[in-house]
Amino acid sequence: QVQLVESGGGLVQPGGSLRLACVASGISLDDYVIAWFRQAPGKEREPVSCFSAFGGEGHYADSVRGRFVITGNRAVSTVYLLTNSPKPEDTAVYYCAAAYRKCSEFESGFQYWGQGTQVTISS
C-alpha cells in the first residue's frame, strides 16, 4: 500500500523559514518522483516543485524559484521542501504527490497523494 505523509506545516512570520517533509512508503524514490503542490483558499491547486532522483536540478514554479529549495533523501524515502523567505501569498495547504519517473506540472500526472499540511505565513 502506497502512503505519502506530509509534516512540518505551521505558522511562520514573513521572512522566516519552514521545512516541509514528505515521507513515502510503498514506493521507492529510485522509481518515483515526488512533487509539492499547494492550494490557497479560494484558488485552484498549483504545482510548486518536483524532485527527481534521476538527475537534474529540482523543478520550481516561477513564484517560488530562488526562495524554495527541494531536496530528497532516498535512504529514508523522504523529500523536503525548504521555504525560505516565505510571503503571505505562500499561505496554503501543501500536498506532496508521487508519479512514476517523470515530473509534471499537471495533477493528472501523479498517481498518489498525501493529505496535506497547512502553511500559514503571517505576522
What features would you describe in this structure?
This protein has strands at residues 3-7, 10-12, 17-25, 32-39, 46-51, 59-60, 68-73, 78-84, 92-100, 112-113, 117-121. Strand 5 and strand 6 (59-60) form a beta hairpin. The protein is 0% helix and 50% strand. The chain is built from no helices and 11 strands. Strands 2, 4, 5, 6, 9, 10 and 11 form a 7-stranded mixed β-sheet that branches. Strands 1-3-8-7 form a 4-stranded antiparallel β-sheet, with no helix packed on it. The protein starts with a strand and ends with a strand. By secondary structure, the chain is mostly beta strands. The chain is globular.
**N- to C-terminal distance:** 40 Å
Computed over alpha carbons, the radius of gyration is 13 Å
- The low-confidence parts are none
The major pleated sheet works out as: 7 strands, mixed
Figure out the total of helices.
0
What is the approximate shape?
A: globular
- Strand percent estimate: over 45%
Order of helices and strands: EEEEEEEEEEE
Return the structural class: mainly beta
What is the tally of beta strands? 11
Helix content: under 10%
Average pLDDT, to the nearest integer?
A: 93
